[in-house]
Amino acid sequence: MTTIEHLYHIYLQHPSVQTDTRLLQPGDLFFALKGPNFNGNHFATKALDSGAAYAVIDEVPASKDDRLLFVPNALTALQELALHHRRQFDIPFLAITGSNGKTTTKELVHAALSAEYITYTTKGNLNNHIGIPLTLLSVRRDAEFAVIEMGANHQKEIEAYCRYTLPTHGIITNIGRAHLEGFGGPEGVKKGKGELFDHLRDNGGTAFVWRDSDDLRQMSRGIPHIITYGAHDADFTGRVVPPAQPSTPGALLAASTFLHVEITHGASTGTIPTQLVGDYNLPNILTAVAVGKHFGVPDGKIRRAIEQYTPSNSRSQLIEQGGNHIILDAYNANPSSMRAAIDNFARLSTAPTGNGSPSDGFGHKILILGAMAELGPESINEHRGIVDLIARYPWAKVVLVGGDFLKFDHPYTTFPDSREAAKWLQAAGLKDAWLLIKGSRSSKMELVLQ
Fold it and tell me: Which of 21, 84, 177, 304 holds its CA 20 to 30 A away from the CA of 42?
């Protein structure tokens, strides 16, 4: 039986950890995890043959290869190894959770801190019970900061992550109507996400709090150190402002699409032009300013870091394709984020008019929206609510894809899946149109563009 201490000694020699044999590199430490449809123990020998230095297994091996390290449970061993590694550091570990905007906030905060410090963070969306330990184990000895994203779809999940992440600082981006099924309703969402603030309260931590949220203000009470950000009456404040007027219509169109934020209190960054689409990104930007400034990052470096951040992975990306302008926000969706995206798209200035200024002409705007997942008994009503919101605006076209959008009457075009919607889009021959494409991960709305 391999102890965590012995496993950590091996990890120090082989600090690249992998759970997928398809991604193995020579010298990696492989953990044979199990799931409903897979058993990593069956691939342990293959991992060694592919160059893994060792394989951590939890089923008695058929061979006596000394490179097979037996533990009672491979997932538990991975998490305990991550905790052991975490305890070697005396640096800020900043945890980020929330219903919407976790990854964008994480990336912006990481960008701001990295302008001054050696900062490690969650790669992509590795924010679950496997991804978080892997993120912790990717933190090297030279680290000055670590930023850890925590996703959750049920209560006690964030609490469990805190046990081996031991965050010293925390952010809850917002409390929205996401994963209602797993959390047991809106109050369950508050309780589940609030487990991060519970940890900070119990361990003398620091919370960065969006002051405009009544929920977050109440949930953060009792935390010994609180830094606030918001539209007003906060340690750091800011507002969305119109962009400066570029000299050409093409530049005007691009500038009018992206978010510009003026920091009005707490930092002297002035107006920050971003490459983000949507006023709903204001709190994400203010979070990065608050965190960077709190930890002494110079104002100019904060500004440049936010200016240069480019969203990726289908998160509020502005894409020019086939003569059309596409906002692809297809990584995930819930009622809160869907409403924010639709309202923002409705306000968005689009095609230049004859005098060179942008307009909000709905004749150019098309919605292609995928169904929202994990909403439980409220799902039909939540989808009806989105349709009611859509009906407030005179869109050129609305296409609704899959799931509960197909289960009640409405006047809009429907398709069973994103591939069928893609066929429609290809046949439509659109030109100079603006499209918002959004949906839950299960809807795979990015396929509409393929």
Answer: 84
Residues forming beta bridges with residue 238, ordered by sequence position: 263
pTM across the whole model: 0.86
CATH classification of the domain holding 138: 3.40.1190.10
pLDDT value of residue 360: 53
Q: Which amino acid is at 132?
A: I
Closest among 341, 329, 340, 333 to 440, alpha carbons compared: 333
109 with 34, same domain: the answer is: no
CATH classification at residue 429: 3.90.190.20
Structure tokens at 30: 């492989």
Question: Among 178, 210, 108, which residue's Cα sits nearest to residue 149?
Answer: 108
Look at residues 46, 73, 100 and tell me which one is the last residue of a structural domain: 73
Q: Which pair of tokens denotes residue 114?
A: 């990295």
In a domain, 65, yes or no: yes
Bridge partners, residue 240, by sequence: 261
Provide CB contacts within 8 A for 380, sequence distance 6+.
404, 407, 408
**CB-CB contact of 357 with 252 (8 Å):** yes
Least confident span in 9-18, 289-298, 339-348? 339-348
Same-domain pairing of 148 and 208? yes
Q: What is the largest CA-CA distance in the chain?
A: 78
pLDDT tens track for 339-359: 989 998 998 876 544 343 444
Question: Could you tell me if 334 and 178 are in contact, meaning their C-beta atoms sit under 8 angstroms apart?
Answer: yes
pLDDT, tens digit, for every residue of 364-418?
899 999 999 888 888 999 999 999 999 999 999 999 999 999 999 999 999 999 9
Q: Are residues 368 and 332 in the same domain?
A: yes
389 alpha-carbon distance from chain centroid: 25
The angle subtended at Cα 403 by Cα 397 and Cα 404, nearest 5°, is 85
For residue 263, give both structure tokens: 């920091």
Q: What would the DSSP string read from start to end of 400-420?
A: EESGGGGSS--SSEEESSHHH
Verify that 120 and 227 share a domain, yes or no.
Answer: yes
Domain that holds residue 241: 89-308
- In angstroms, rounded to a whole number, what is the distance separating the alpha carbons of residues 97 and 107? 13
